[in-house]
Amino acid sequence: MLCIVRFTAFAVILLISLTAKNAVSQELNARQTPLDDIDSKIPQSYFFYRESEFPVDCYDAMHQCSSSVDSGVYLIKPAGYPEPFEVYCDNSLENGGWTVLQRRLDGSIDFNRKWEEYEAGFGFLLNEFWLGNDRIAYLTNQRTYQLRIEMTKADGSMFNLSYDDFRISDGYSNYKLVSVGQANLTSDVNITLCPTNKVFGNCTCEGTCSDPDGCTNSCSSGSTTCVCPSGYLMDGDTCQLIQECGCYLSGANDGRGKVLPEGEEYIAPNCQSRCSCSNGQLDCDDSYQCHPNAICEERDDLLQCYCNAGYTGNGLLCTRLIPPSDCQEIYESGERDNGIYQIKPTSWTGSPFDVYCNMTDEGGWTVFQRHMDGSQDFFLYWDNYKQGFGSLTNNFWLGNDKIYSFTNQRRYQLRVDLVNSNGVPYFAKYDFFRINDENDNYRLQLGSYRSESNAGDSLTYNHNQPFTTRDRDNDAWGSNCAKDYGNHYNCYYCYYNGAWWYKYCAYTSLNSPYGQDSFVWYHLPSGNRNIKFSEMKLLPV
After folding, report:
1. Residue 219 confidence (pLDDT)
2. In angstroms, rounded to a whole number, what is the distance separating the alpha carbons of residues 366 and 474?
3. How confident is the model over 244-276, as pLDDT tens digits?
4. Phi, psi (deg, nearest 5) at residue 37
5. Please, are residues 140 and 167 in contact by the beta-carbon 8 Å criterion?
6. CA–CA–CA angle 341, 343, 347 (5° rounding)
7. What residues have CB less than 8 Å from 459, skipping those under 6 apart?
8. Considering only CA atoms, which of 305, 312, 236 is closest in space to residue 269?
9. pLDDT over 70 for what percent of the chain?
10. pLDDT at residue 199 above 60?
11. Closest Cα partner for 69 from 11, 21, 30?
């Protein structure tokens, strides 16, 4: 074993030191020999039989050299550290062997340093210094060490504080203080030991994890005690980092802040926004708002959106416990987007079915027909028209059984939207629309043409006429009007124009083949009767 020391005696004013608890005594005595003369003082035969081995700390150095080694600068090499380095060993305290990490005496050394300097160490071992985080990490991770802090106040009174298990991590973990153990104070002055994460300071009004902007004051005004440092909040009897309390939400709780626990949500007053806490990060959604069939209120100490009676959902989306009977009820529930919804008419015995709702013209119109291109064949059979066919987002017929059930639960008005082949839009409204059941061949009951319409009345001629398909001839025309001309109500009228017969079944044939002269609305004021788009829909009166 090799013991190398440079010794200079001096008075200790302020130091931090540590000692190994379980070091093994070594066989070599300490030598107070200049480093330049060490080779000449050690017999050559020593190097022949064994390699030199440096002590791993001051405790090891003291026992390698002798039982009465004086304090001074020694050379050590902690386990795993690449090269030996000098440390100051204090052997005057208790049983000796204290490796000094830091000393401050007179302000001659600037301790306001950069990270790299604290990592490598700075100062002078015989005066003020910091040993270096990298060295301290190697040193404290090879054994269990006790930390001793000795301090002298301005009035000369002295005290020391020790911790029984001191260790820091390596540079990859930013030299984190891993352990300090239990504290023990020896002093001739009145010293207050503060728990972990607290500091000694003036008594102030402190916030808590549950109430960051609140005031917890357990001491008299102007006194000093253990308080939470900046960036911490009280959590019971201890202090927690604000981010460890949860997510801080400013302006909540009637203008005061709030810490939102991990995984929980906060709803702002009037339910105008919602914030959630995930992984310590606050995420707020200012578009949060209650569904029209919901109310914002506090129930069981929880403020949020709640669906009204008769509806179910999370308050943002509320659906009827009983399905709506038509698109108007869906419109009244607050929906304003055109699209596919489910309804169940009051007399319908089957499951709810999909319909297309058109939410324009100040209401929820239930669409039962749309013909917009030639991708869907409308020249179909009785059962096809009975059950319905096509795509609700494109061309379709809803189905006569559904239309019958639907139109016989309330009084409905009809709107027919049209676009002629020149791209000019028109519409026609009728104040009443209903069909009978299959036993009466889905006979049409139609009300009066509304004056605000601009398409002209081309449908009244179908009033009280039965439905006709290519395989079920129910019209009054001599042949099957649906088969001949693609209409599905009675062929009522044919127009003669001299040299040509233009046959318009009841002046309208919106289910006729697309792009032919039979797909018409005869009384369009423009004179262009050919249609390229039709949509028929119903709204309660």
Report:
1. 55
2. 27
3. 777 877 665 554 566 777 778 888 888 888 888
4. -100, 5
5. yes
6. 165
7. 416, 428, 430, 446, 449, 506, 507, 508
8. 305
9. 78
10. yes
11. 30
